[in-house]
Amino acid sequence: MTSPALRERWREAAGRGVQKGLRSSWELVKVIAPVSIGVTALSHTPALSWLSRTFAPVMGWLGLSGEAAVVLVAGNAVGLYSAIGAMMSLDLSPQELLILALMLSFSHNLLVETAVTKRLGVSYWGVMAYRVGLAIVAALLLNGLFTWLPIGGAAGGAAPDGLHAAVAAPEAVAASAERAVAGGGSEPAKAWVARAGEWVGAVLTDAAGGLIKTVALLIAIIIPLMASIEVLKEAGILESLSRRIQPYMGWLGMSGQAGFPLLAGFVFGLAYGAGVILEAARDNGLSQGDRRLLCVFLVACHAAIEDTLLFVPLGVNPFLLLGTRLALALVLTAVAARIGVGERLEEVQG
Fold it and tell me: pLDDT tens across 154-173, in order?
């Protein structure tokens, strides 16, 4: 094939990547914007302060303040984009941001992604427990590290001061409403409407500042990332890399055929990785033991590039986040292989 033709294929692949990036960016905006506005609205009411006080004792063990519970619920129920929308609307410390990013990297979009892994022949509830347990243990360890190291103290246990008291706007709205009912005139009612308008304006103004900046940064990351991935696929670079790592797969207890599915899941994500694993199982005779160990690895570290870069606009160190995920994935998979998890699960399956 001539070089101009090859370059044309790469340009077409990059174009497909840009289109995918634009679609992903639009999906991102549709999720992040309403969540961000919603959480910002909560911060302008007593609700977030109440949530912080309620969950502070439990969240403190994880190095998080009480209102961080909103982030974990959004991330696990919906996905990373919702969690990021919540994170950017709260006053979180750098330690809390890193702990949340690590937890959400292991445990997010639980219902959908766990259902995807079930296609590999693993237990639905087992994978869910593994993901949630991994997130909790990682948070406990990281919080312990922050507490031990002299870096300004632990992150959790208390909400930011601004969230312990209700913002004046909702109280003013309520007071205006009472006066309107008591007075029965049009002026108090107009005052109530004016106060409500001021409150809505404050919410939208607060949300817009961080939202525009964060979404712009995410789009600047996602579109080039998607284009690069498509070019890598078209150029066959991923397949070449998978052949290079095949000799080392034995250390993880897997056969050489598991190299490409592992790399695909590592780069593209759990859903795509599961599809590649099933295809490899049909075409290359990938054993059930390989599937189980691949699941152990990919639950801990999947979509490593995209998921990591999504947290960069929030100030999370990408090298620390990705390095922690990859190290845990390698260690957990190697341990699982050495205690015979793949073989035992295969026997149970049989």
Answer: 344 433 333 333 333 444 44
Spatial distance between the Cα atoms of 326 and 121, rounded to a whole number of angstroms: 24
Nearest of 239, 255, 238 to residue 292 by alpha carbon: 255
Task: Measure the CA–CA gap between 214 and 221, rounded to whole angstroms.
Answer: 11
Angle between helices 110-118 and 124-148 (to 10 degrees): 130
CA-to-CA separations, 307 to 83, 192, 201, 238, in angstroms, rounded: 12, 44, 32, 19
Domain range summary for the chain, segments of one domain joined by + = 3-223, 236-349
CB 289 within 8 A of CB 95: no
Cα dihedral across residues 139, 141, 144, 146: positive or negative: negative
Taking residues 160-188, what's their average pLDDT? 44
3-state helix, strand, coil in the chain (%, to 5): 80, 0, 20
